[in-house]
Amino acid sequence: MSTPVIEFRRVGLTYPGPPPVTALQPCDLSVAPGDYLTVTGPSGSGKSTFLNLVGLLDTPTTGRYLLDGIDTSALPDGDRTALRGRRIGFVFQSFHLLPHRSAAENVALALLYTASRGRRGAAERRERARAALVQVGLGHRLDALPTRLSGGERQRVAIARALVGRPSLLLCDEPTGNLDSTTAESVLALLDDLHAEGLTVLLITHDPQVAARGRRTVAIRDGVLREVAAA
Ligand code: ADP
User: Fold this and answer.
1) What's the gap in Å between 84 CA and the centre of ligand 1?
2) Core-most of 35, 79, 99, 106, by most CB within 10 Å?
3) Which residues span the domain enclosing 30?
4) What is the reported pTM?
């Protein structure tokens, strides 16, 4: 069996307070390469806490988290940051694109700290950005500024930016939260396609219809995570 992308072993998080708040009760979770997991729950249930843990933006107060088999619990901050940069592509509700840079530049910038430097590095970054934008269906909009793109196209650029570093995991936080229903559907269809191509996707949403797109769904309620459905 292949190494899970995500493996939680009794991972939990209690904010120290006062008073202390257990935002995530100790839980086990395993996400295999190529899986598509959705995480759902109402506001205040612990979704952001879970996202921060999976995304290596926060450390558990109990348990161990293995990312691609690497035990992240004991890593120094610099190593965690490097691991996050190489292995996790983030997609948020807001697109966070630089307004005065083209779509291709926005995507290429994500490689600045990981790809090789110098003139060869710049050419490689440009080519990889182009390929990532082609992958999300924006091969014809490489030079467009974000202000000239629709909301759905901006989110595609953000997805291309998340993919360009060839991460093990695409971590999406309410990726359709700012989009109308038709545009949201096209972004969800893109995630379906990327999953079909073998990408591991984890999507966090409060919307049960969006959550239903996953191959597996876990629900968080009052900090308790449990699996609710597997296709
Ligand atoms: P969600 O993303 O589902 O809205 P959160 O993970 O943000 O939920 O919050 C889960 C619980 O943890 C809530 O009760 C929230 O008030 C609490 N919480 C979140 N962040 C902190 C913090 N930094 N300190 C203390 N409590 C927090």
Assistant:
1) 22
2) 106
3) 6-228
4) 0.94
